Amino acid sequence: MLFAAVWIFLYTAAESHQVRFFRTFECINGQCQRTQRPVSILDVERLKIHGQHTTLAACKLICGGNGALWPLPTGPFSIGNNYLLTHPDKITFDLTRIPPGVDSLINEVINIFRTNVESSCGDNCDAVDSSVIVHVNVESGNLELGWNTYENYILRIITEDEEVHVHINATSVYGARHALETLSQLIAPIIKSSDKRGLVIIDEANIDDKPIFKHRGVMIDTGRNYLPVSAILRTIDGLAATKMNVLHWHATDSQSFPLQIKSRPLMSWYGAYSPKMIYTPEDMGRIRNYAKYRGVRVILEMDSPAHAATGWEWGETQGLGKLAVCVEQQPWRNFCIQPPCGQLNPVNPHVFEVLRDVYKDFFSILGNDTVLHIGGDEVWLPCWNSTQEIVDAMQARGLGRTTEDFLKLWGEFHNEQLELISKLKERSDSVIVWSSGLTEPNVIEQYLDKNRFIIQTWLPAASTVPEELLKRGYKLI
């Protein structure tokens, strides 16, 4: 009874005084750990003297040598072991060394940086007097984002009399964007009291960074599984945070054709899962711009000639003949590698008229500098071999029904696509295709020009095909 009385007394006393305790963090052997004893008063500077931090994020800034940097810089870098209080409103930018024409994009990049920093502190972000000045120097005014874009940057943080100066030097605006992404990783939220938050920034850093790979991408598949635009934008946020630079948008497949094509509206009318599960030209443009401001380019893929069924069935109703063959035929194992079956009809000239219109719409939305992925995987030759229209057209050209004859037809299909794209762009450009039977080292040079076709391989790690293609001069993803 005595024990119970004491416990009740202590509980009541604690409640009456509304005592609140906070857990802090400390760096032990290069890792942040929660301290064993809580504290009732948060004095950021006093705690820091004792090696304690009010948030895990603040602890990570100076723990382990690499701080919170991700991915790690590829060049030499060092991070100081101290941080200073700051506030989003106290971060200003010096843009006097920005070339003409870059202002709009760099301002968008800065707004994204500000939004990210402000959200990490929240609504109750405590004001401070110290300031942070970010000096940005960009050498090139070229805004094109491609494989040859320089994404390198150098970031220096120097503190003078409680004033933090951040110096960013980058070849392109995209390198400057990456530098600001890194800078955001050198800033962390802290808890100052029960109702106040704050921000801290590393007071000293030297970082020299550039990517090892020109293509650092993630693929999404909206042909099989519709993704809301908001989910695609969140994916781009993740790519930007990790300095990846490609969103490979596998947009269509046998299951659905969710892209709204103004010149060919029947594609999505027949092909979308529902009228609400489509991407309008405005959606595609929004995704493209959202990505570009975050240093990510969109590579759109409309798979062909295989993986083409839903969305291609309307040809005969419009007097265009069969645009796709073997559509949803059974037993599916006889007509495709995976159901539902469907492959474009390579001997129907109207197929290329439709492709021309679709590609033209793509370029009007994504820009003439975009690189298209034209698919090219899992073409099932028995499908074409079982289609009388195709067999008759091949025989009329003196072709037989051997594997070599169908590979020739397949190669001609891709080269016709390439020619369409080149005419629309008014320049000789490259396209991307998946690795396949057509890209085997012993046959590829007969069909695909190494200077025009980029091969994206999806092979087991032990495969020697990528190495063999590289030896033959092909570019690979």
UniProtKB/TrEMBL annotation:
InterPro entries: Beta_hexosaminidase_sua/sub (IPR025705), GH (IPR017853), Glyco_hydro_20_cat (IPR015883), Hex-like_dom2 (IPR029018), HEX_eukaryotic_N (IPR029019). GO terms for biological process: carbohydrate metabolic process; glycosaminoglycan metabolic process. Residues 130-186 form the Beta-hexosaminidase eukaryotic type N-terminal domain. Its EC number is 3.2.1.52. It catalyses: Hydrolysis of terminal non-reducing N-acetyl-D-hexosamine residues in N-acetyl-beta-D-hexosaminides. The keyword Plastid does not apply. GO terms for cellular component: plasma membrane. Keywords: Glycoprotein, Glycosidase, Hydrolase, Signal. Residues 1-16 form the signal peptide. Residues 213-477 form the Glycoside hydrolase family 20 catalytic domain. Pfam families: Glyco_hydro_20 (PF00728), Glycohydro_20b2 (PF14845). Belongs to the glycosyl hydrolase 20 family. This is beta-N-acetylhexosaminidase. The gene is HEXC_1.
